[in-house]
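Minutes, project check-in
Item: structure for the 247-residue chain
Input as provided by the requester:
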Amino acid sequence: MHRASWPVLRSLALSASLVIAAGLAATAADSEWTPLIGEHELDAWRKPTGAWYVAGDARPDLSDPTRLAGVPGRGAIINGPGKTRNLYSKEEFGDIEAHFEFLIPRNSNSGVKLQGLYEIQICDSAAALKLTGSESGGVYPRAELLPRYHHLDDGYAPKVNAARPAGEWQTLDMVFLAPRFDTAGKKIANARFVKVVLNGKVVHEDLVLQAPTGHAWRLPEVPRGPLMLQADHGPVAFRNIRVRRLN
């Protein structure tokens, strides 16, 4: 391709992204947010919910900063003493805008997965200098479980390290487009993170996903699936999770 064509192609790609974003914004403005925590507590999540419990707030345990302690009340959920079942939403989603608030203690690791397949990583990485998909806000690498767990690539690193120190509440917002399929079930368009914002900073924009992340990369992709909150890697608390469909 002639070099002179590159600026034109970049301009066309940017224009297409702006059209997509404008269309999604208009669609979102006409839809309603659905809260998945709050008054609903754990009602929006599939049972069994393991050791997850409802609290008014979460903070690092004074006797062990790698664990969490719950404050009495309602509005937040905590995954028990440290590790338990991953949570899957009862409702399944395709194209969505989603908002999460989370808190982890020192050295912890969690994540949220769109459709149970595409993970945005959550971990204690505020001090990280080299960014990969394994840091907070990254799109987690593809991986294999055997003969031992190992990554197949670096995933998609966040554009900036926007992680806050462990023990602080953080925000994660995203606009996600599900993969598209024809009438025969053949995939004709990949899943896409239109935008991912961690603590007010854009960490991904118009990112196309060739396949699911982690060891789920071999699983079939679907037009709709549940949200997943990872709970089997370390302590984590969530509050104020809400989503709205994009049509």
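Outcome recorded: Residues 1-19 have pLDDT under 50 and may be disordered.
No further action items on this chain.
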